[in-house]
TrEMBL record:
Transmembrane feature ranges: 16-41, 73-92, 104-121, 141-166, 178-201, 207-228, 240-258
Source organism: Komagataeibacter swingsii
Membrane topology: Multi-pass membrane protein
Location of the protein in the cell: Cell membrane; Membrane
GO cellular component: plasma membrane
UniProt name for this protein: Probable membrane transporter protein
Top-level taxonomic group: Bacteria
InterPro entries, alphabetized: TM_pro_TauE-like (IPR002781), TSUP/Inactive_protease-like (IPR051598)
Family: Belongs to the 4-toluene sulfonate uptake permease (TSUP) (TC 2.A.102) family.
Record's keyword terms, sorted: Cell membrane, Membrane, Transmembrane, Transmembrane helix
Amino acid sequence: MPDVLHTLLGLCSGGIIGFTLGLVGGGGSILAVPLLLYVVGIADPHRAIGTSALAVTINALFSLASHARSGNVVWKCAALFACAGIFGALAGAACGKIVNGQRLLFLFAFVMIAVGALMMRRCRQTRQARPQQAAMRTAPLPIVAYGIATGFCSGFFGIGGGFLIVPALLAATGMPMLSAIATSLVAVCAFGLTTSISYAVAGMVDLPMVGILVAGGVAGSTGGAMLARRLGQHPQRLRMIFACLIFLVAFYMMWRSARAMGLA
């Protein structure tokens, strides 16, 4: 069981993750692994990845329930995408566990940089007029192919992968953005649960810390959503600030992992 200090640090970390998710609407779970490593103090990168995967899954379930009640989830596409992606997630988790922990963190930092770049691109795109939405496509092959690819990335790095899943659903089906965001949560839950079970079987999930992160995340997401409503006039600015934060954390993680591997 975590002591008082680690419990408080875990609550604060969960609060930061939930706050950023509530504030900018995505990307906060990418901070879970570095927060567990450098704030909470979990020494094993694989244990941090397994723990964060389960915490992200539970948080995604709460969000999914809200979207499902609103009727935003395209269940047929969600089921096909998630089922295909589970196989990718199993393969990704198996590969991730055999890669050196510090090397995995070094690669994870590049993923964080990609997330930051995508968020900045999204900020620029929101200033431009969007074309009229085309009819949704339901061909199964693209959905299965994108599902396997994103599932592998999610399992390999132990992340929710929503920043990959949403663009993949848009590319495979052309569904509206709100539906893609809601539908992606089904895949986030499926991939995260698959990854966390794989890591739990290997003894690489800290269950008490998962509960602490989720508790902090619930409180943090409430505060982030409230602030987002107050600052709703400038959503692009909020995402730009968060993207810069991701860049800083990614470069710090890259430096720490490079030092641990003797590259710096």
